[in-house]
Amino acid sequence: MMKMICKNKSSLLFLMLVTSLSLFLYWFSLLYLANKHVNYAKLAHKDDPMKRGSDFDEKLVVIYNRIPKTGSTSFINLAYDLCKKNKFHVLHINVTANMHVLSLQNQIDFVRNITHWNEMKPALYHGHMAYLDFSKFSMPFKPIYVNLIRKPLDRLVSYYYFLRYGDNFRPNLVRKKAGDKMTFDECVEKKQPDCDPKNMWLQIPFFCGHAAECWIPGNEWALNQAKQNLVNNYFLVGVTEQMEDFINLLELSLPRMFNGTLDHYLNSSKSHLRQTASKIQPTGKTISDITKSPIWKMENDLYEFALQQFHFLYKLRSNIRLQGKNFSQKYFYEKIRPK
């Protein structure tokens, strides 16, 4: 009898041991598979560009090398109003004596600074500075460039009267030509330096960059380089006359920074900042005289080129029209190999 009891106890202990071991192996397998699944998920997250969006957003750097008298104050003040809400930084680039190009030492210092200043990311940098190509400094980082361009004669006329009468942004600030009552028409008729067509040579060099040829009025190479940079190195270039569409496109494509910008532009006082206090539109004769200039023709060529690019991108902004119907444009991956 004692032998049978011992035998039964031994069998029971063996059964319990086997059961415990089976349960242990079962739970170990579950934990292993779960951990493996997490690792695969991490790997997929790492390799999937669509899931790296947050990392892209938090390292986002936009440079707006704003051209004088193109509506840049109205646009940049939207960013200042929304930067706290959208949690990004806005920094003004102030170059000594309002120079539009940097020395070689400052170029590389500027590039290194923006590249490594992680505490300021995401960030929007803005200032009256010519395009600077980050890739030639062998940096593993390239910011996103945006800009606005304006009809060249409109920009020149606006700047002419701005120097004399100021604007509604800082109405009490005395400008350097204050008291000069000569109209732009009279200036052109008398061939004065303030209305010389060479003064229109600004948008081309801003897009062209830091090369010496960029700043030679009438330089054909500069125009071609400006076009190449505009297409290849700028994320978006809008036109002053369609700033609302420019803001709309920025909000749709870079919502991390520009979310809510269009609504703020349309429903606040920031859509009409910095209007020149007194401005007289030029006569037909003045326009005819100015538009004969090769400088105007080249600057207008760049403007028309930029306008064409902008209209093309805006038509593709979110919807496409096929067979008489509107569709929201999407993209996806298929036929992925190996399985």
From TrEMBL:
| Coiled-coil ranges from the UniProt annotation | none
Q: What is its main location?
A: Golgi
* Keyword annotations from UniProtKB, A to Z: Disulfide bond, Glycoprotein, Golgi apparatus, Membrane, Signal-anchor, Transferase, Transmembrane, Transmembrane helix
* Localization in the cell: Golgi apparatus membrane
Transferase as UniProt keyword: yes
* Gene Ontology biological process terms in this record: heparan sulfate proteoglycan biosynthetic process
Q: How does it sit in the membrane?
A: Single-pass type II membrane protein
* Matching PANTHER family: HEPARAN SULFATE 2-O-SULFOTRANSFERASE, HEPARAN SULFATE 2-O-SULFOTRANSFERASE 1
Know the name of this protein?
Answer: Heparin sulfate O-sulfotransferase
Organism of this sequence: Pseudolycoriella hygida
Its lineage reads: Eukaryota, Metazoa, Ecdysozoa, Arthropoda, Hexapoda
The protein's gene is named Hs2st
